[in-house]
Write a structure and sequence with these properties.
Order of helices and strands: EHEEEEHEEE
Strand content: 25-35%
Number of domains: 2
Shape: globular
Radius of gyration: 15 Å
Largest sheet: 4 strands, mixed
CATH class of the largest domain: Alpha Beta
Structural class: alpha/beta
CATH topology of the largest domain: 2,3-Dihydroxybiphenyl 1,2-Dioxygenase, domain 1
Strand order of the largest sheet: 1-4-3-2
Number of strands: 8
CATH architecture of the largest domain: Roll
Length: 127
């Protein structure tokens, strides 16, 4: 078996328009596919992260709230590699997106921080 890359990561959002604006207009991911699925009464939005990876967004009607603390089993957070965490934090701040204080990852000794999507999903920046 040879699993050589992550093809996509799927998340569920509560408000399609708000999440689309966040991920496309603010974070800058480009739309690969965007479809309304009438049989499921939801939107499915595929965004390009890089040449190999997509972020798949599902927007059903009335999804249950995301558990937070204590953390539940399942996806904990999404982490994005950036060349300069400080610069990316400045760019997010200019868009009104708050970040936690920058700190060093205790294992990699690289700068990192977290911010949150409109549904509270933790998103990490990591150098």
């Amino acid at each position: 078996m040879h699993l050589d890359a992550i093809h996509h990561i799927a998340i569920i959002v509560s408000d399609y328009a708000v999440s689309r604006a966040f991920y496309v207009d603010k974070l800058g991911f480009s739309v690969v596919r965007e479809n309304y699925r009438p049989e499921k009464r939801d939107w499915k939005l595929d965004l390009k992260v890089n040449d190999n990876t997509e972020l798949e967004i599902f927007a059903p009607q009335n999804p249950p709230k995301r558990p937070s603390y204590p953390e539940a089993c399942g996806l904990r957070h999404l982490a994005f590699h950036v060349p300069d965490v400080r610069q990316t934090v400045k760019e997010l701040d200019a868009m009104g997106i708050a970040c936690e204080p920058i700190r060093l990852d205790e294992f990699t000794q690289r700068r990192m921080t977290f911010f949150f999507d409109p549904d509270g999903l933790p998103l990490e920046l990591h150098e």
